[in-house]
Amino acid sequence: MSSNIRLTRRCHVCGVSFVAKTTVTKNCSDRCAKKAYKLKIKNQKVYASESETSSQIPYVAIEISAKSYLSIKEAALLYGVSEKTIRRKIARKEMPIIRFSKRIVLIKKEFENLLRIET
Ligand SMILES: [Zn+2]
């Protein structure tokens, strides 16, 4: 569909001014339109992934709250820190653990009592 409309627009991708022939044109070229499309698809995927993750957390949180011993992964999720931080605390003996096997470590959930509370 062509028209006699000529509008000066600024490209959403590269920022260059161009003459648009429709009122909905957002990009200066096919290359920029493809870039914009790829970015849109990427953002949709990121959003879908984030919403999926946020819908999983409450279920996991309920599951964790019912346990008295946690895995490193669960402890990291519960306290909002990385697994590396948990492993570091274990190495410094700042967390009471039970060594289930050579590789499996369980953390006693009520370890908060042992943490120093800063005021
Ligand atoms: Zn452009």
TrEMBL record:
<feature type="domain" description="Helix-turn-helix">
    <location>
        <begin position="69"/>
        <end position="115"/>
    </location>
</feature>
<dbReference type="InterPro" id="IPR041657">
    <property type="entry name" value="HTH_17"/>
</dbReference>
<dbReference type="InterPro" id="IPR010093">
    <property type="entry name" value="SinI_DNA-bd"/>
</dbReference>
<dbReference type="GO" id="GO:0003677">
    <property type="term" value="F:DNA binding"/>
</dbReference>
<dbReference type="Pfam" id="PF12728">
    <property type="entry name" value="HTH_17"/>
</dbReference>
<protein>
    <recommendedName>
        <fullName>Helix-turn-helix domain-containing protein</fullName>
    </recommendedName>
</protein>
<dbReference type="InterPro" id="IPR038148">
    <property type="entry name" value="Tn1545/Tn916_Xis"/>
</dbReference>
